[in-house]
UniProtKB/TrEMBL annotation:
Pfam families for this protein: STAS, Sulfate_transp
GO biological process, one term: transmembrane transport
UniProt cross-references to InterPro entries, sorted A to Z: SLC26A/SulP_dom, SLC26A/SulP_fam, STAS_dom, STAS_dom_sf
Keywords: Membrane, Plasmid, Transmembrane, Transmembrane helix
Location(s), subcellular: Membrane
Transmembrane segments: 30-51, 57-77, 108-128, 140-162, 182-201, 208-225, 255-277, 331-348, 354-371, 391-418
Principal subcellular localisation of the protein: membrane
Name this polypeptide is given: Sulfate transporter
Residue ranges constituting the STAS domain according to the UniProt record: 444-557
Stored SUPFAM superfamilies: SpoIIaa-like (SSF52091)
Record organism: Leisingera methylohalidivorans DSM 14336
Topology with respect to the bilayer: Multi-pass membrane protein
């Protein structure tokens, strides 16, 4: 298939899942869509508040983005739309550029969404899905934790009737401390009632529309307390119920300021979508195409920017609810968008009666739920390097900016990867009987006898410029431990060799032969063999020193071993030793005695 044909196939809005729709799946998807619309109605308002946008923009994003992503994406169950993490990054990016909630701020949000969609679409059509998925999962865990802390702290002020504050976590906390004498008891009580209702509803039955009931309880509490008369802020009426088409107002002077934030949002969105899509595909035994999903996310944000949507991505909460509600195909997300529009026509007049502390309480709950304590505990207890990545990302996000936290986490991931790649496994093997078979095990780890003349050394990992120092250091350590010997260098576990790796092999050949020993290579993969040929390793080694199997390499090395040493050896490590002088007539395998005097 040509590249142009593949790209065209990814852009065509006719997807394989559409043929799976029937009467049964339609009914299941309709019920799941109705449930999803009920949940996303208050969520859309809350996420828009996090992003610093009027509530309707969160609702528009919950309509258009999942609809487009469902058509062009790859996941059968994932639901896209506004998310807390992306809302937080968008706010952190735009707040320094324009007053929050102003028309200028909204314009920048739509332009940023357009840039995000273009970046993601280009990434999907370029086949970068595997590269993006390569970034450590700990980056997302650390970033999400930092975003949760920032979101939580940002909503403490509105929940206490103090209004919003600016800056990162510490400046916001200091601002709250300075204004602690101005806390409004009515606002605090409304937030407490709302939060308590969510906790109660989720404990009673997770299928209940906890967010809507909590908003209703908070609004009733506000009315009973005469919150408006006490100065407690309420939401303005929705500017519109349905999105309208408008071209984002691109301005050259704002593009440079938006590009770093757009890259961070695009990156976070793709990591969220790919990780969520893969997890559900594995659980449901369904196929998942990372590149197609990236195309779907890019198309949803690109199209959404023309319909008053801000950047969205896959939502684990709504996707999980979609699966639990019995959804069969992406049609459930499309139907949810339609149901949400119908609901808005009914409830939009009531939005102006919702106190801001009630929504802030919902956001506080969402922020607390964002922190995945189980996953953090798993990372901390199983991997030191992943723990470092998590901490670097989290701490950077808390003390600095969220978009910079992503960069710090990605850099930390690459450093860890390069560090691990630069330290491949170098070990000496020896044969041992296991389950009636002769296998090679780590000689030092299992205390196995080694041939006094031949060292079976294997490498697991790349032999490239970054790993040469480590491999050479390990070779010298093994020489000091076991003595200089003819080395059989097993390259079967080597992914690639570059010019520095080829030069290392040549240096080892010359070093071994200068000391009266030799070097044999085990290499079978065509790419490795071509690389060795291109680097002229065969010219120095000789074609009879490059072997396709361990047996061939051992046979050649044992045949060239010094007979006088073999005659006194009682180890007989290799079966091939039976052909050497001094071997007992009935020898059948490796022995355990040493050299005779």
């Amino acid at each position: 298939m040509s590249a142009a044909t593949e790209i065209l196939g990814r852009l065509v809005p006719v997807r394989p899942w559409m043929t799976a729709v029937d009467g049964q799946s339609l009914r299941a998807d309709a019920m799941a869509g109705l449930t999803g619309a009920t949940i996303v109605l208050p969520q859309g308002i809350a996420f828009a508040v996090i992003a610093g946008l009027p509530p309707e923009y969160g609702l528009f994003t919950a309509m258009i983005v999942p609809l487009v992503a469902a058509i062009w994406g790859s996941s059968m169950i994932m639901v896209s739309g506004p998310t807390t993490a992306i809302s937080a990054v968008l706010f952190a990016t735009l707040a320094p550029l324009a007053p929050v909630g102003t028309p200028e701020y909204v314009t920048l949000a739509l332009v940023l969404t357009l840039l995000v969609g273009a970046m993601q679409l280009a990434a999907g059509l370029s086949g970068l899905g595997e590269v993006i998925a390569f970034i450590s999962h700990s980056v997302i865990v650390g970033f999400t934790g930092a975003a949760a802390v920032l979101i939580f702290v940002s909503q403490l002020g509105p929940a206490l009737g103090l209004g919003a504050s600016e800056g990162s976590v510490l400046p916001r906390l200091l601002a709250l401390a300075d204004r602690r004498d101005m806390i409004e008891p009515a606002a605090m009580l409304i937030a407490a009632v709302t939060l308590g209702t969510i906790l109660l509803m989720t404990r009673l039955d997770k299928r209940l529309p906890a967010y809507i009931l909590a908003l209703l309880a908070g609004s009733v509490a506000g009315a009973l307390l005469d919150a408006a008369g006490r100065g407690v802020a309420h939401f303005a009426p929705l500017g519109a119920v349905s999105p309208s088409f408008a071209v984002p107002q691109l301005q050259a002077d704002s593009l440079a300021a938006l590009l770093p934030g757009a890259a961070a949002v695009a990156f976070v969105g793709l990591l969220e979508a790919i990780s969520i899509g893969k997890s559900f595909a594995v659980a449901r035994k369904e196929r998942f195409d990372s590149n197609q999903e990236i195309v779907g996310q890019g198309m949803s944000n690109l199209v959404g920017s023309f319909f008053q949507c801000y950047a969205g991505s896959g939502s684990f909460t709504r996707s999980g609810l979609n699966a639990d509600s019995g959804a069969k195909t992406p049609l459930s997300a499309i139907l949810a968008a339609g149901f949400l529009l119908l609901m808005l026509w009914l409830v939009s007049p009531l939005v102006a009666r919702v106190p801001v502390p009630a929504v802030s309480a919902i956001i506080l709950y969402v922020a607390l739920k964002l922190i995945d304590h189980r996953e953090i505990r798993h990372i901390v207890t199983t991997s030191r390097s992943e723990t470092v990545i998590l901490l670097v990302t989290f701490v950077t996000g808390v003390v600095s900016e969220l978009d910079f936290a992503i960069l710090a986490g990605v850099v930390a991931s690459l450093v860890v990867f390069l560090s691990q790649s630069a330290r491949p496994l170098v070990a000496v093997g020896a044969p041992a009987g296991v389950g009636g078979r002769r296998v090679f095990l780590n000689a030092h780890h299992y205390g196995l006898p080694q041939c006094p003349q031949i060292s079976m050394t294997r490498l697991e990992g790349p032999l490239f410029f970054g790993s040469i120092d480590h491999v050479e250091r390990r070779f010298r350590q093994l020489d000091a431990q076991d003595g200089d010997k003819t080395r059989i260098f097993n390259l079967r576990g080597v992914g690639r060799i570059d010019m520095s790796g080829g030069q290392f092999v040549l240096d080892e050949v010359r070093r071994a032969r200068a000391q009266g020993h030799d070097l044999h290579l085990i290499a079978k993969h065509p790419d490795i063999l071509r690389t060795l040929e291109r680097l002229h390793c065969g010219d120095v080694l000789g074609p009879d020193h490059i072997h396709g199997t361990k047996a061939a390499a051992i046979d050649a090395a044992v045949a060239a071993a010094q007979d006088d040493i073999c005659a006194r050896c009682r180890l007989r490590v290799f079966h091939e030793c039976a052909r050497k002088p001094g071997a007992p007539a009935d020898e059948s395998g490796p022995q355990t005695a040493g050299l005779t005097p």
